[in-house]
């Protein structure tokens, strides 16, 4: 089997670069359209072991939908499973991440799962705090802790850009208010959602978060649980089923480990008990996932035999 070395990772990255031409930088949030589509960077951290990085691994980008895993974990810690899943479902969907249609036609009482926009907006309403500032402070602290990076901050430009152009997300939220999933504080919930989507990270941060989840909620080599094991299990299962939007099934078959992507082109992945991986490639395909990023993960999965259901 292939051994992980710096040279190997550089090679995977170079071979995956052409795949960025198959995608385009997201432009529906104006600030994101300024990203360079040819950027490609990766960090791989073995649980309790070595860390390897290649390409544009120092590039910062915003969490976007990757934050959906983190808000879910905090909401679960705050309210428990029964309460969280009383307003959001647990089922994968073949619909796009921002679909409005199914809320009215099929789901009726709740969004499909916490990995689509409507589900994540509903989950935001479960995070405790007296006001938006306090709730955001709690989620930022939580992400700083689980990434091990105390310097993470909000990207003010992306936040303002999302807020200004967030009509689609507003329509999801107001529709959910109309069917009783959300209460009167819709604008506050949206504000919180826009803020945690706009936290700046690097692939190192994503790989560290992946590693913590791969280690079931404990920082490798330490004994304190930063997240409850049972909630990591829930969140990681949902990542596996629904973390790559309506390409989750194909990704599960071809790559085979839990991952969560975002429209800025980041992907946070984990191989349980083994490693965390962060990738950035801002050119995304028509289902919202980094085209070159997915190629990096597929190559790593094949070469290192990381697919969960492959004999390892
Ligand atoms: N902030 C983006 C939105 O709400 C996140 C979506 C995504 O990454 N798919 O539209």
TrEMBL record:
Give the Enzyme Commission number: 3.5.1.2
Give the matching SUPFAM superfamilies: beta-lactamase/transpeptidase-like
An example of a Gene Ontology BP annotation on this entry? L-glutamine catabolic process
Tell me the keywords, alphabetical order: Acetylation, Hydrolase
As its record notes, the protein acts as a catalyst of: L-glutamine + H2O = L-glutamate + NH4(+)
Q: Summarize where substrate binds, as residue positions.
A: 65, 117, 162, 169, 193, 245, 263
Q: Does the keyword Acetylation apply?
A: yes
Which GO terms label this protein's molecular function in UniProt? Answer: glutaminase activity
Matching entries from HAMAP family are given as: Glutaminase (MF_00313)
Q: How does it assemble?
A: Homotetramer.
Q: What family is reported? A: Belongs to the glutaminase family.
What is the protein's given name? Glutaminase
């Amino acid at each position: 089997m292939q051994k992980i070395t710096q040279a190997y990772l550089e090679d995977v990255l170079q071979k995956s670069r052409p795949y960025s031409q198959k995608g385009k930088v997201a432009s529906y949030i104006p600030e994101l359209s300024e990203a360079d589509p040819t950027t490609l960077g990766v960090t791989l951290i073995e649980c309790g072991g070595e860390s390897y990085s290649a390409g544009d691994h120092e590039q910062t980008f915003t969490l976007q939908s990757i934050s959906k895993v983190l808000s879910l974990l905090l909401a679960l810690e705050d309210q428990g499973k029964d309460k969280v899943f009383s307003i959001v479902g647990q089922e994968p969907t073949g619909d796009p991440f921002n679909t409005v249609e199914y809320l009215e036609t099929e789901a009726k009482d709740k969004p499909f799962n916490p990995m689509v926009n409507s589900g994540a907006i509903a989950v935001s309403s479960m995070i405790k705090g007296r006001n938006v500032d306090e709730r955001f402070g709690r989620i930022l602290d939580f992400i700083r802790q689980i990434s091990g990076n105390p310097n993470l901050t909000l990207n003010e430009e992306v936040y303002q850009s999302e807020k200004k152009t967030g009509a689609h997300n507003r329509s999801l939220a107001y529709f959910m208010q109309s069917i009783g999933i959300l209460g009167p504080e819709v604008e506050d919930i949206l504000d919180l959602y826009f803020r945690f989507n706009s936290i700046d990270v690097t692939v190192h941060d994503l790989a560290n978060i992946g590693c913590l989840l791969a280690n079931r909620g404990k920082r490798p080599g330490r004994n304190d649980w930063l997240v409850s094991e049972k909630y990591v299990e829930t969140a990681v299962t949902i990542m596996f089923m629904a973390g790559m939007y309506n390409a989750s099934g194909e990704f599960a078959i071809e790559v085979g480990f839990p991952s969560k992507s975002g429209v800025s082109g980041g992907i946070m992945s984990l191989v349980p008990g083994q490693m965390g991986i962060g990738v950035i490639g801002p050119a995304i395909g028509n289902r919202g996932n980094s085209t070159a990023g997915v190629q990096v993960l597929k190559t790593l999965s094949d070469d290192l035999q990381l697919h969960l259901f492959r004999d390892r």
